[in-house]
Amino acid sequence: MKFVPHGKLSATIEDNIFIIDGTGPWNKEALELATREFSALHRQLYGKKWAVLVLTHGDPIHTPDASHFLIDAIKADKKHGRITTALVVKDCEDIKFAKIHIRDIYRKAGENLQFFDNEQNARHWLQAQLNSHQ
After folding, report:
1. Strand order from edge to edge, sheet including 8-14
2. Which of 127, 121, 41 is CA-nearest to residue 84?
3. Where are the domains of the chain?
4. Could you name the CATH architecture of 8-132?
5. How many CB atoms lie within 10 A of CB 37?
6. Among residues 3, 56, 57, 115, which one has the fewest Cβ atoms lying within 10 Å of its Cβ?
7. pLDDT tens sequence across 54-100
8. Cβ of 120: how many Cβ atoms within 10 Å?
């Protein structure tokens, strides 16, 4: 049985910040597809100190296999200069559950994670984190 990617993701880079904009929930197939599509862009950051800004819309929930895939991806990124993640959750049905779910994934990956109410505060915090690692 073949599974269809569920959830949408796009990515850009600004000032050593890898920005992921996504609408969830996500399955593993969606994360695998995004990994393939963003590979060349993503690798531009390797060898530098860099951070991730995640902007989510809808419910930022991952299926169990997607959670495991994301944990492994974050661990791999950390070997290539990733230092921290800021996450902004928008339009979510159950923000408390979403934060517990996401925090658990990032904790298992060993990643420093902070939640923010808006993108501007998240970007400011990420830039401060990057500056402290220079």
Report:
1. 8-14, 17-26, 50-62, 82-90, 113-116
2. 127
3. 8-132
4. 2-Layer Sandwich (3.30)
5. 13
6. 3
7. 999 988 999 999 999 999 999 999 999 999 999 999 888 898 999 99
8. 10
